[in-house]
Each structure stands twice: as C-alpha cells, then as structure tokens.
Amino acid sequence: MSEEKKKVINSLKDTGFYKPGKIYDRGKVIAGIVVFIVVAAFPFFYTAGKAAKMHEPKLDTPVIRQLPEAERVCVLPKQEMRENHMVLLNEWRDQVVREGNREYTGYTGKKYTISLQNTCMECHSNYDEFCNECHQYTVQTPVCWGCHIQKPKEWAG
Ligand code: HEC
Ligand code: HEC
Ligand code: HEC
Fold it and tell me: What is each CA distance from 72 to 56, 68, 113, 120, in whole angstroms?
C-alpha cells in the first residue's frame, strides 16, 4: 500500500467512516467522498453559473451618451465603483450631513456636486436596468428612496 493511500485510510478511520474488514465499507466510503465533493463544490459551480449569466450594467442613458468619449467615466474608476459605490455613498452622505460640504472631486479632477438624486442618478437615470438589475442579481435591497423622494415614481425598489 502506498504512503499516500495509508494516510487517506488513517484519516478516514479517524472520522469513523472507514472500518477495516467490513465488505460494505468501501462502497460507503466512496459514496461518502463523492457526496462530500459534490456538496463542497456546489457553491463554486452555483456561483460560476450565476456569474456567467450576469450582464454588464447598462450605461446607455441620455446624459452618459452626451458625454464626450474621453469623459465617459464615473466619479471613481469603474472597478472601484463596482466594488465600493456603497462606501462612497456613505462618505458622500457623511460629508453633507456632518460638514455641510457638497463638493466632491472625482479621480479625473472633475468637480461634482454631492447628490444621490442629482449627480449619480442624473447619469444613471436607468435605475431599473442599472442599479436595480445588479442588486436583484446580488440580492441587495438598499432602502434609500423613502427619504430621497425625488426618485421618479416609475423607479422600483
Ligand atoms: C431616514 C431617511 C433617509 C434614508 C432612509 C436615507 N437617507 Fe440619505 N439623506 C437623508 C437626509 C435627511 C439627508 C440630508 C439631505 C440634505 O442635507 O440635502 C441625506 C443625505 C444623503 C446624501 C448626500 C446628499 C444628497 O442629496 O445626496 C447621500 C449621498 C445619501 N443621503 C445617500 C443615501 C443612500 C445611498 C441611502 C440608502 C442606503 C439613503 N441615503 C437613505 C435621509 C435619508
Ligand atoms: C458623469 C456621469 C456619472 C456620474 C455622475 C456617476 N456615474 Fe457611475 N458611471 C458612469 C459611467 C460612464 C460608468 C462606466 C465607467 C467606465 O466604463 O469606465 C459608470 C460606472 C458606474 C458603476 C460600475 C458599473 C459596472 O459596470 O460595474 C457603478 C456601480 C456606478 N457607476 C455607480 C454610480 C454612483 C453610485 C454614482 C454617484 C455616487 C455615480 N455612479 C455617478 C457615469 C457616471
Ligand atoms: C455592478 C453591480 C451593481 C451596480 C451597477 C450597482 N450596485 Fe449597488 N450594490 C451592489 C452590491 C454587490 C452591493 C452589496 C455590497 C456589499 O454588501 O458589500 C451593493 C450595495 C449598494 C448599497 C448599500 C446597500 C446597503 O443596504 O448597505 C447602495 C446604497 C447601493 N448599492 C446603491 C446603488 C445605486 C444608487 C446604484 C445605481 C446608481 C447601484 N448601487 C448600482 C452592486 C451594484
């Protein structure tokens, strides 16, 4: 018996799965291992399948379309926005509420007025297809619109 095989059998003995000398054990051990692998791998395949289905957030809005190609960017680089827009929104809120300062300088040096309604949503006016579609996919339901009431009523969520 190889060293490797001995190690595996010993560790199986520790778990109580493997009881040497009984004919049916082998099948059970193999079945156990197969079940374990399938269960352990499930989240991976499940996520991979979902990730493949996700479409790119749609950027086709009147305001974004009108931006010159070179300025067709967000306030921070795309990847950073994708991962951290919620953090940025919290910072924006704190800056307005605590400091009364509504000026924000984007990564390109462009100045923005801090406003969820008038800045983010002016460019991303396709709330349902942009914000909402991604949140539904990632199972997020930010509750902002009860207070930020300028949201057009056709926006869901
Ligand atoms: C309980 C009510 C309430 C809820 C819920 C709420 N906000 Fe606000 N928010 C406010 C108020 C009040 C201000 C201050 C408004 C001002 O001074 O212009 C504010 C300001 C802000 C600002 C900065 C100013 C502006 O006009 O954008 C941001 C950004 C913001 N909130 C983001 C959010 C986000 C994102 C959510 C959802 C996760 C959210 N808020 C949920 C009440 C709320
Ligand atoms: C001047 C118009 C403009 C403003 C203002 C703006 N965005 Fe963007 N946003 C864009 C563009 C254009 C992109 C795509 C950037 C790229 O492709 O490099 C983008 C990308 C994003 C992405 C990433 C999308 C993806 O494909 O993963 C998120 C999330 C986002 N914006 C949220 C916000 C939020 C939240 C705000 C307000 C804090 C905001 N944006 C303000 C134009 C804007
Ligand atoms: C590329 C996908 C994507 C897009 C596009 C997107 N979001 Fe998100 N959003 C997320 C994910 C994922 C989270 C949860 C992140 C986490 O929990 O760490 C989130 C969380 C948030 C939160 C915090 C929610 C909470 O309860 O803490 C707010 C607020 C938010 N998004 C607002 C927006 C707005 C406004 C837009 C459109 C301008 C937008 N998002 C577009 C993926 C996206």
Answer: 16, 6, 17, 13
pLDDT value, residue 82: 95
Global model pTM greater than 0.85: no
Q: Whose CA is nearest to atom 41 of ligand 2?
A: 120
Q: How far is the CA of 10 from the centre of ligand 1 (A)?
A: 59
Write out pLDDT tens, residues 76-116: 999 999 999 999 999 999 999 999 999 999 999 999 999 99
Q: Residue ranges of the domains in the chain? A: 3-46, 62-145
Ligand nearest to the CA of 104: 2
